[in-house]
């Protein structure tokens, strides 16, 4: 591991050294030749050793397993895919502004989509963006307004919702209204802290979390991209076994590593793609970092500097392990409860 920045402070005879690492020992490879338009939302399914992710613009849910890439072709913008506890063929997906289930068996090409409920009905053009399940499998999912060809998104048209496991699809609970681009979510291992990103704020927000009631309180900022003058905005994120965050930097060409308690910048992992969209740890030992990237809006001339644009990447040798990606609890999604 080589060091790119060190701040040395002398505190009463003790040298406290803080270094931001650049992970020189890590190796990064493209997993397949496919170029994603808007690769997003990687989820490592440790029960089946499969990586699921979406291409929002191509309307696809991808499955990468045993060196093979398959996809389900849907007919709307797909913001996220999360497996349901206890099933290897049942997923929750965000399709336009509809929350839907996807039935897709591991070894089959056919699949079935069932719409369950729709949000943001008063906001045409909105769509689902990133989503995660908390430590008990409660689904949190956010929306955003329509992105125009120049990449602009109207301010405050999105909402972060929570699925109430008692009321299920009667109504998703709006928890944080007036967000712009609802993005990364993460919880610490015991579920007492929730981290959240509304990308244009450039901040990682931190909340106290009550895992029993699945509720947030005490909003503050853990980390602000402005603090260290970082380019780009935060997008998707994941949390490692040490409780530290790995944050994709959209328009920043890197993944940021931030201490989950102190909010201190621990390192920057350069990625040869400008629009880095999301990250998750995976692999049988949870020691690989999977990184999704976006080619939408990247000018051809930039591919010289960013040859990994649009690729799904696998990073080895970081020397860090991740945490299990949480599935959504089955209660609201058992196939017998589905409205056919
Ligand atoms: C998603 O929205 C697009 C554009 O409005 C529409 O053409 C498509 O049918 C929608 N798909 C679903 C599944 O609602
Ligand atoms: C939960 O974990 C955090 C560290 O992520 C720790 O500070 C806190 O004491 C833990 N709380 C409980 C109740 O175990
Ligand atoms: C679900 O909604 C009910 C009724 O409003 C409420 O009492 C309960 O606390 C909610 N549960 C969660 C996990 O938010």
Automatic annotation (TrEMBL):
Residues 1-19 form the signal peptide. One of its GO terms (molecular function) is calcium ion binding. A divalent metal cation binds at residues 40, 183, 235. The keyword Metal-binding applies. Its cofactor is Zn(2+). Keywords: Metal-binding, Signal, Zinc. Substrate binds at residues 127, 129. It comes from the Eukaryota. GO terms for biological process: L-ascorbic acid biosynthetic process. The active site is at 235 (proton donor/acceptor). InterPro entries: 6-blade_b-propeller_TolB-like, SGL, SMP-30. Residues 39-294 form the SMP-30/Gluconolactonase/LRE-like region domain. SUPFAM superfamilies: Calcium-dependent phosphotriesterase. Binds 1 divalent metal cation per subunit. Belongs to the SMP-30/CGR1 family. This is Regucalcin. The gene is rgn_1.
């Amino acid at each position: 591991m080589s060091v790119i920045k060190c701040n040395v402070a002398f505190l009463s005879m003790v040298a406290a050294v803080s270094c931001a690492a650049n992970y020189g020992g890590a190796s990064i490879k493209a997993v397949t030749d496919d170029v994603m338009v808007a690769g997003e939302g990687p989820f490592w399914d440790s029960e089946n050793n499969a990586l699921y992710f979406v291409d929002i613009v191509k309307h696809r849910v991808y499955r990468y397993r045993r060196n093979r890439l398959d996809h389900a072709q849907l007919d709307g913008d797909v913001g996220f895919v999360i497996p349901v506890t206890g099933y290897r063929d049942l997923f929750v997906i965000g399709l336009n502004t509809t929350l839907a289930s996807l039935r897709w068996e591991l070894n089959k090409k056919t699949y079935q989509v069932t719409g369950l409920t729709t949000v943001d009905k008063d906001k045409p053009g909105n769509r689902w963006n990133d989503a995660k399940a908390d430590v008990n499998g409660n689904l949190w999912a956010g929306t955003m307004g329509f992105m125009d060809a120049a990449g602009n998104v109207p301010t405050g048209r999105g909402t972060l919702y929570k699925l109430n496991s008692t009321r299920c699809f009667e109504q998703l609970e709006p928890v944080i209204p007036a967000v712009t681009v609802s993005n990364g979510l993460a919880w610490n291992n015991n579920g007492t802290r929730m981290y959240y990103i509304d990308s244009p704020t450039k901040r990682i927000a931190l909340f106290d979390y009550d895992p029993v009631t699945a509720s947030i309180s005490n909003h503050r900022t853990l980390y602000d991209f402005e603090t260290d003058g970082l380019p780009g905005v935060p997008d998707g994120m994941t949390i490692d076994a040490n409780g530290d965050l790995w944050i994709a930097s959209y328009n920043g060409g890197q993944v940021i590593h931030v201490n989950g308690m102190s909010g201190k910048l621990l390192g920057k992992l350069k990625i040869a793609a400008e629009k880095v969209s999301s990250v998750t740890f995976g692999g049988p030992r949870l020691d690989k970092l999977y990184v999704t990237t976006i080619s939408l809006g990247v000018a051809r001339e930039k591919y010289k500097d960013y040859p990994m644009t649009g690729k799904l990447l696998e990073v080895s040798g970081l020397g860090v392990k991740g945490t299990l990606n949480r599935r959504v609890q089955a209660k609201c999604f058992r196939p017998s409860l589905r409205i056919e």
